[in-house]
Amino acid sequence: MSMSTIDDLGDVRGKRVLVRSDLNVPLQDGVIGDDGRIRASVPTINKLADKGARVIVCAHLGRPKGQVKPEFSLAPVAERLGELLGREVRFATDTVGDSARATVDALQDGEVALLENLRFEAGETSKDDAERGEFADRLAALAELYVGDGFGAVHRKHASVYDVPQRLPHAAGGLIAAEVDVLRRLTGDPARPYVVVLGGAKVSDKLGVIANLLGKVDRLIIGGGMAYTFLKAQGHEVGKSLLQEDQLDQVRGFIEEAAKRDVDLVLPVDVLAATEFAPDAEHEAVEATAIPADREGLDIGPRTRELFASKLADAATVFWNGPMGVFEFDAFAGGTRAVAEALIASDAFTVVGGGDSAAAVRKLGLDEDGFSHISTGGGASLEYLEGKTLPGLSVLED
């Protein structure tokens, strides 16, 4: 299946083009914590504006659940987007109302507007097709063409992602095209050894992706909070560490399946066990098979960092999703840093799967160019690797 690109839309000069971007950045009291997603959306918007289109950007922020909540306003994002684009961004104070229509009507060729948070409208995320469709009609009425570029939202059956492109001639933006190319490389015929590194808090978030990848990878490395459920499934004491009791049977099944398929399943051999969940918690490195009952593992230990790095050294393809520990606390960021640095040092095609992993790379001050690709969509990447059909991609395919 192929997707149309912006070039396939023909001459866009003077045309109103609605671009669905992903501008869902961390925002605290109007201050943007990490503008990675805004930066990733810039090339597509600039390309259209340079071609003389009248660009109408739409996006969501957080989960205001269909209500107007000032703390979720995209106003600070409009300002940052303008700085990064190097051109003024006009901001509409609503999504499909009077301000949106007036702002769009005032656009000249090559100018850019941003609509207020899509999720202030209940119709954007509604499960009811008619309610979603009605909102999609109003959004589509603002434009003549549609460009889907919000990769982080393509796994959602939302109005701006799924229904609007069915109402307008459409194409995929450069960001979505790049993300899909990368995911096809990971799922098609990846160069081997193919190693997947999974971390993060919950096994349950990664069940589908583990099940699907066990038949495709040579090696599966498990760290982060989810590792404790694997250790417990092998019969080890995990103390007060994060544990998903209800996933133990499933995980035992994965361990057996990995052995059957000759997949090298790599688990921590030591962990940093802390007295409490706190940045300054007293902690020590202990055997992963003997975590004291009154302690909780908050990061992989020094021997595990070396083990994981050695298991990545000869890889040809690596997909990494999820931190190895509580990287937000400096004392427990070393495991995540070690994996990231091993990826940077390797000659492999390395993909960081969005979400917390991408945030960790930036928080730890690592060179983003050291990786082949940093995805902008954690959940979307995982669902693609699970083999699911993503609504926002399927509607862009011809």
Short description:
This protein is of the alpha/beta class and 398 residues long.
Explain the overall architecture.
It is found in: Cytoplasm. It catalyses: (2R)-3-phosphoglycerate + ATP = (2R)-3-phospho-glyceroyl phosphate + ADP. The protein is 35% helix and 16% strand. The chain has 398 residues and is an alpha/beta fold. The protein has a 6-stranded parallel beta sheet, sandwiched between helices. The protein is elongated and about 65 Å long. The mean pLDDT is 95.
Instruction: Please state the structural category.
Output: alpha/beta
Q: State the distance separating the first and last CA atoms.
A: 7 Å
Query: Which sheet architecture does the biggest sheet show?
Result: 6 strands, parallel
Shape: elongated
Rounded to an integer in angstroms, the radius of gyration calculated over CA atoms is 22 Å
Task: Estimate the mean pLDDT confidence.
Answer: 95
Described by its quaternary structure, the protein is single chain
Major sheet strand order: 5-6-4-1-7-8
Low-pLDDT runs:
none
- Helical content stands at 25-40%
Please tally the β strands and state the result. 17
Q: Strand content of the residues, in percent?
A: 15-25%
Number of helices: 15
Subcellular location: Cytoplasm
Organism: Actinoallomurus liliacearum
Main location: cytoplasm
Pathway: Carbohydrate degradation; glycolysis; pyruvate from D-glyceraldehyde 3-phosphate: step 2/5
